[in-house]
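User: Here's a protein and a ligand (magnesium ion). What would the complex look like?
Assistant: Let me lay out the input and then the predicted complex.
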Amino acid sequence: MTEQIQPVRGMNDVLPAEIAAWHIIETAAREVLTAYGYQEMRVPLVERTELFQRAIGEYTDVVEKEMYTFVDQGGESLTLRPEGTAGVMRALISNGMLRGQRHKLWCTGPMFRHERPQKGRYRQFHQVSVEAVGFPGPDIDIELIALTARLWKRLGIERVRLEINSLGTPESRRAYREKLVEYLRAHHDELDADSRRRLEGNPLRVLDSKNPDMRALIEAAPVLTDHLDGESREHFQGLCAALEALGIPFRVNPRLVRGLDYYSRTVFEWITDALGAQDAVCSGGRYDGLIGQLGGESTPGIGFAMGIERLVALLTQAGAPAAEPTADVYIVVSGERASAYGLQLAERLRDALPERRVELNLGGGNFKTQFRRADRSGAAVAVILGEDELARGVAAVKPLRHDAGQSESPLPDLAAAIQTALATAVHT
Ligand code: ATP
Ligand code: MG
């Protein structure tokens, strides 16, 4: 036998039986974002490698070891996007959309990172990422957090809690950076290889280490929040006060620094205790310096991304949503003429009932087989068309999910009869 082709490690199929949860999350996200005035946009999966190096920063896990980078036939170094923000900012600049304008945007799709695959951590994963550009905050920071809180409520997700912090400005970080470097140098022997490299390149990154052996050392490090500049402190206090006023519980976590380089001031993360080690479901923050760093005119920005796989896991933990039915109406046909006519009838019903899913039995089969398929399709109503019905110009309409008897309808009235039957049908 020919050998099977294996899937790529860390890249998942989403099967029809699992898609209901994805649709619930994608629909809720789209509706909530639309209700807050955010517009969808789409950017390429592939960008020049340099974009991510500049936007995300060299001393990060993503750029140091997780990017899918390749040289294309034209000799250019390209990278599969590891996150959404850099591409969206690049697009705003390339399309001349800044110039003092403000944008509230979102995009969704697959992201690629060469990480060690495990539960909740994949090499292809999906995000909804949301960006607001041209707003200095903190009002927009608060709106974004309120929006996420609303989304969890809409989805019935309860086991998440909010952590926030402020990273101050690059200037205020400089003073802190010196204190941190002094502390880390004094503990040089306890640093792992990554941290030693980052100590020289970007010492704040050390605080974002995922190595459990580094935890105690990081816990005891000087705290950035103690070194905030006045304006950043005010910004942060505004954020905290408004969250309290809105009744959104939060915890200030002075160790929250986030993995990407471009953040300033507000950072936040929604954490769950329901998924084990992969506990972040939504992470974001303010990136006032990013657009300038990419060659655009300096414009404040803030955004966040949520991991759809982790939200799907949270949603299905409480009980997997039922698989979506493929049909509302299933047409059972018997006999050659009725089968041929069935194709026309199905098209006519799809014209008349555009909101309904109409499935025609294909590939023949006796009544028993066809009714088994009708049952599996999830249809609430079967239409039965045999030679006898066809000769009399009628079809039978049979509710499938309760005991009400079957009735007959003249073919021209069939769509109305189906609507009536569906209106009274009880889905199980
Ligand atoms: P983590 O700390 O879990 O590595 P991160 O800080 O790298 O997350 P971001 O880059 O901010 O995460 O991405 C935002 C969200 O995307 C995360 O909160 C998480 O829900 C999801 N996410 C990130 N990496 C992965 C992955 N490899 N597989 C699945 N989801 C992911
Ligand atoms: Mg990560």
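Summary: The chain has a mean pLDDT of 92.
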